[in-house]
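Revision sheet: structure tokens.
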Amino acid sequence: MNKTLENWLKDTARPFLTKGRGGDWDHTLRAVEYGRYLLEHEEGDDNIVIPALYLHDIGWSQVDFQDFLQASPGQKVDTPSLASHMRVGASLAGKILRDYGWDPVKTLVIVEIIAIHDEPDRVSAMENPSANLVVEADRLDRFGPESVKRYNALFGEDVYLMGRHRDESTAYLQDGMRRWFKTKTARALAEKLRRETGISD
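Predicted:
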């Protein structure tokens, strides 16, 4: 990964991510580290995966996401703000990467991934290993101790993972364990993180 680009992406993405949903900056940093780990063991282009992970959630800073926060776990996928943050984020990411002068072919792929990154089945249909790693790295941060803290802070401890939506959120994560992770490395890491917290038992 081009270190100059990575440092520039950090500086550029952080203001968007700290303006969006609570914890998005820390989530992004964890997703990037998961992406690096996956790249060590699986096929993928770090010059696509890492920029896409830094930029994948910048769109939340531009949309009203109260509908997302208030929806139950199973309904979040249908909220207008979820779709909007992908569309707006893809547009912003394209401009950011073009302003930097990043490879135009890789930029197009990154934009395409960000535009659908919360629709794992559509990403899988791209048949692009780098796109799959972006989804896997992002989704890995739905498991593990830091993820539990993030969800509790976003949605309220009495509402989500430990509260009245516990069954629904557990079913969502159990289904995700089966559907989101295509690589052996991601499946093993997701299971390790799941065991650390038991959030999808």
